Amino acid sequence: MTNKLSVTVKTNKGRQKLLRLFKQTKMPKIVGLYSRIATQSQRANGLSIPRQKGCLAEEARMRNFTNVRYYTDNGYSANDPNRPGYKKLLSDIKNGVVDTVIVYSCDRIVRNLKDSILFQELLDSHKGRFISITQRKGSDGK
User: Fold this and answer.
1) Would the pLDDT of 42 be above 50?
2) How far apart are CA 114 and CA 59, in angstroms?
3) Other Cβ atoms within 10 Å of 20 Cβ, number
4) What is the CATH number of domain 28-138?
């Protein structure tokens, strides 16, 4: 049996209070599963969002991660810093909600060295981990 709690927060002050409470509890952090596709040709070449999500879910399952959340950007370039899924993921990392990020490949989340460094520094500053399935590299050493 799974107990679920649903909370609606209507003010920023209330949201901040809830985040502080969340950080104080020993609840397991969320593993962010990020997928992105920009073009139809990527979809045709096997990078569809459903395929990425399936691979991400399998990776999380193999690592015994059960508390996962999907972050998805469909039709956005990795060069666009205003991707809604990406912005939500960054916010959740900054707020201590997400401590691990899994991507299909590194280029799904960032496309250039500067953005890659900034993303990794954000994760490092929050003691987070980064895992890329196809490159088999990440901050967790696996």
Assistant:
1) yes
2) 27
3) 11
4) 3.40.50.1390
Look up the pTM and report it. 0.76
Strand bridging mode 137-138 / 129-132: antiparallel
pLDDT at 41 over 80: no
Name beta bridge partners: 30: 98
Tokens read off for 109: 């989340």
Q: What is the mean pLDDT of the chain?
A: 85
The Cβ of residue 22 has, within 10 Å, a number of other Cβ atoms equal to 13
User: For residues 140 and 125, is the Cβ–Cβ distance under 8 A?
Assistant: no
**What HEC string does the chain produce?**
CCCCCCCCCCCHHHHHHHHHHHHHCCCCCEEEEEEEECCHHHHHHHHCHHHHHHHHHHHHHHCCCCCEEEEEEECCCCCCCCCHHHHHHHHHHHCCCEEEEEECCHHHCCCCHHHHHHHHHHHHHCCCEEEECCCCEECCCC
Greater confidence, 5 or 128?
128
Cβ(96)–Cβ(23) below 8 Å: yes
